[in-house]
């Protein structure tokens, strides 16, 4: 029998506990090491990477849980079906199990394709020798394409040896039917009876998945813990990209258990995870067959659409940097998107949405609309202060100041591809911005301005000092307009790449006309200044 499953404190709680007693810090870091949530997936490899070991790895990664793997079979598989299966000799499965279980503090074992009786036996033996906190059994028998992955010969040993050790077993209708000797399962009531009968075989919990139930608009699963039934419903998502959902569900349950969740909560999270991934992946095209994979990490579409988006930051884009202001747009009766469009038409080379008084839902809507305009014109769009909005609309980056989210944290949230600008008034701040992984510096206020309250000015001297102290490209900001832009750009440092303006564009009647004039002045002055140096 496996150890009784226990729930651990979350990592944050561990830190909080340690703060009360510094003497326990060494012991605590040791416990954190030991309690790193770790799922071992014992399953088959899917060369198409939609299901099997590959799905388990991706799911656990998406859920923030370490996943090790013991491969029971190597399948040649794609979106059409299974073209070949090469079973790993049971001795070598045993060797893999020993390698991982003897060394790596596995929390939960999750099983998928177990193609032979011998492999189930070595797994049982290993689990007895190296007990873990929980065992999740996904009784994989037939692939989504209908190909047999484990024949009826393994049913007896599953029923007699593996299921009694399991904390949960997750059959679909076909697998539940096979476990029960081939009875037909066509209704929710059939699923309840099946869950009960399978529970009688020994697992602590059963989840009978009703995805294949005919004529149901929802996807209904039945969870049974030996006492109570729970009907779990989720939307039935119309998609061909459902290959690997069973593996993903089971490995997500395992991942949540490894993090310390109770069983029913783990199942609920896993259903939600799979539903989200299915919905996100419904219009992805990978392969020519009918069984497309899920995008477990919900990130692939960003790359599909990358043709229309910026590849990497170009410092020359700082030439005329238009920064929006909701008060000014309200005053002139313009939407943010209309203001952005006019600025771009006049020659703005980069846009920042600086919406200090716009409510979050409206800001996000506006950001999506503006992004469409920007993408259409190949102009990068950044968000001021709000990393959450930038993430939600997939903007090209953010601009943060000294009292905003630190740039290194923004970088870790946004990843290496996004543009990050940091406001700097001093060489020290400029140095830190570079250390933190910023792409450019916004330096100012150069002149006094009514747009930003209580903002000290650094003048042209302060701007020059920041430029000379850094290798990063710099854009000047603060009180800059047609009357003084030439003096700013003439300052000369090579890395001074342009000017950022708010009121000189957005507090004017015709944004495009002002942008045109500013663009001409900045680009001509930059040319003559760089020719002179
Ligand atoms: C290009 C550019 N430079 C500086 C700023 C100012 O940012 P911050 O100091 O965070 O002040 P707020 O704009 O948030 O008020 C900027 N927005 N853009
Ligand atoms: C956001 C900001 N940061 C420093 S000054 C400033 C405001 C710039 O606005 P304007 O271009 O209207 O002077
Ligand atoms: Mg800010």
UniProtKB/TrEMBL annotation:
GO annotations of cellular component type: chloroplast
Cofactors: Mg(2+)
Reactions it catalyzes: 4-methyl-5-(2-phosphooxyethyl)-thiazole + 4-amino-2-methyl-5-(diphosphooxymethyl)pyrimidine + H(+) = thiamine phosphate + diphosphate; 2-[(2R,5Z)-2-carboxy-4-methylthiazol-5(2H)-ylidene]ethyl phosphate + 4-amino-2-methyl-5-(diphosphooxymethyl)pyrimidine + 2 H(+) = thiamine phosphate + CO2 + diphosphate; 2-(2-carboxy-4-methylthiazol-5-yl)ethyl phosphate + 4-amino-2-methyl-5-(diphosphooxymethyl)pyrimidine + 2 H(+) = thiamine phosphate + CO2 + diphosphate; 4-amino-5-hydroxymethyl-2-methylpyrimidine + ATP = 4-amino-2-methyl-5-(phosphooxymethyl)pyrimidine + ADP + H(+)
UniProt subcellular location: Plastid, Chloroplast
A GO term for molecular function: thiamine-phosphate diphosphorylase activity
Occurrences of domain Thiamine phosphate synthase/TenI (ranges): 320-505
The protein's annotated pathway: Cofactor biosynthesis; thiamine diphosphate biosynthesis; 4-amino-2-methyl-5-diphosphomethylpyrimidine from 5-amino-1-(5-phospho-D-ribosyl)imidazole: step 2/3; Cofactor biosynthesis; thiamine diphosphate biosynthesis; thiamine phosphate from 4-amino-2-methyl-5-diphosphomethylpyrimidine and 4-methyl-5-(2-phosphoethyl)-thiazole: step 1/1
Superkingdom of the organism of origin: Eukaryota
CDD domains the record matches: HMPP_kinase (cd01169), TMP_TenI (cd00564)
Residue intervals of the Pyridoxamine kinase/Phosphomethylpyrimidine kinase domain: 46-289
Key words, A-Z: ATP-binding, Chloroplast, Kinase, Magnesium, Metal-binding, Multifunctional enzyme, Nucleotide-binding, Plastid, Thiamine biosynthesis, Transferase, Transit peptide
Primary localization class, coarse: plastid
InterPro entries associated with the record: Aldolase_TIM, HMP/HMP-P_kinase_dom, PM/HMP-P_kinase-1, Ribokinase-like, ThiamineP_synth_sf, ThiamineP_synth_TenI, TMP_synthase
Stated family: Belongs to the thiamine-phosphate synthase family.
Family matches, as PANTHER family: HYDROXYMETHYLPYRIMIDINE_PHOSPHOMETHYLPYRIMIDINE KINASE THI20-RELATED, PHOSPHOMETHYLPYRIMIDINE KINASE
Alphabetized HAMAP family for the sequence: TMP_synthase
Protein name: Thiamine phosphate synthase
Organism: Daucus carota subsp. sativus
Lineage of the species this protein comes from: Eukaryota, Viridiplantae, Streptophyta, Embryophyta, Tracheophyta
């Amino acid at each position: 029998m496996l150890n009784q499953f226990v729930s651990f404190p979350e990592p944050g709680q561990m830190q909080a506990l340690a703060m009360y007693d510094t003497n326990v810090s060494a012991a605590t870091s040791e416990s954190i090491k030991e309690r790193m949530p770790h799922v071992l997936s014992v399953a088959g490899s899917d060369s198409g990477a939609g299901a099997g070991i590959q799905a388990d790895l991706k799911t656990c990664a998406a859920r923030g849980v370490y996943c090790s793997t013991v491969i029971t079979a190597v399948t040649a598989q794609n979106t059409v079906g299974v073209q070949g299966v090469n079973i790993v000799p049971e001795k070598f499965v045993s060797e893999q199990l020993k390698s991982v279980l003897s060394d790596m503090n596995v929390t939960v074992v999750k099983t998928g394709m177990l193609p032979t009786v011998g492999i189930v036996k070595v797994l049982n033996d290993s689990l007895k020798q190296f007990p873990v906190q929980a065992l999740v059994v996904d009784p994989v028998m037939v692939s989504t394409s209908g190909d047999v992955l484990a024949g009826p010969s393994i049913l007896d040993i599953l029923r007699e040896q593996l299921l009694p050790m399991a904390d949960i077993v997750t059959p679909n209708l076909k697998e539940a039917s096979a476990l029960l000797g081939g009875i037909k399962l066509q209704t929710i009531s059939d699923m309840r009876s099946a869950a009960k009968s399978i529970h009688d075989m020994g697992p602590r919990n059963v989840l009978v998945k009703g995805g294949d139930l005919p004529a149901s608009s929802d996807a209904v699963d039945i969870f049974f813990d030996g006492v109570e039934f729970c009907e779990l419903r989720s939307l039935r998502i119309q998609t061909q990209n459902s290959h690997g959902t069973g593996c993903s569900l089971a490995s997500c349950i395992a991942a949540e258990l490894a993090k310390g969740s109770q069983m029913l909560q783990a199942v609920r999270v896993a259903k939600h995870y799979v539903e989200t991934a299915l919905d996100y992946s419904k219009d992805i095209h990978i392969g020519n067959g009918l069984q497309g994979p899920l995008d477990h990490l919900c990130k692939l579409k960003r790359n599909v659409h990358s043709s229309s988006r910026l590849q990497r930051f170009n410092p020359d884009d700082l030439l005329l940097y238009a920064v929006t202001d909701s008060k000014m747009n309200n005053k002139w009766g313009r939407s943010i998107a209309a203001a952005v469009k006019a600025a771009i038409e006049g020659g703005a080379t980069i846009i920042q949405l600086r919406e200090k008084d716009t409510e979050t839902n409206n800001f996000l809507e506006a950001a999506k609309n503006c992004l469409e305009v920007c993408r259409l014109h190949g102009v990068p769009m950044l968000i001021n202060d709000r990393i959450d909005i930038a993430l939600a609309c997939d903007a090209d980056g953010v601009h943060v100041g000294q009292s905003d989210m630190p740039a290194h944290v923004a970088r870790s949230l946004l990843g290496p591809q996004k543009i990050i600008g940091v406001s700097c008034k001093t060489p020290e701040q400029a140095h830190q911005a570079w250390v933190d992984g910023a792409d450019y510096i916004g330096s100012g206020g150069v002149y006094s301005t009514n747009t930003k309250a209580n903002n000290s000015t650094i003048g042209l001297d302060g701007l020059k000092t920041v430029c000379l102290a850094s290798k990063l490209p710099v854009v000047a900001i603060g009180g800059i307009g047609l009357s003084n832009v030439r003096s700013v750009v003439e300052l000369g440092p090579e890395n001074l790449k342009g000017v950022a303006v708010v009121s000189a564009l957005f507090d004017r009647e015709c944004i495009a006309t002002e942008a045109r004039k500013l663009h001409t002045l900045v680009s001509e002055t930059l040319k003559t200044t760089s020719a002179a140096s």
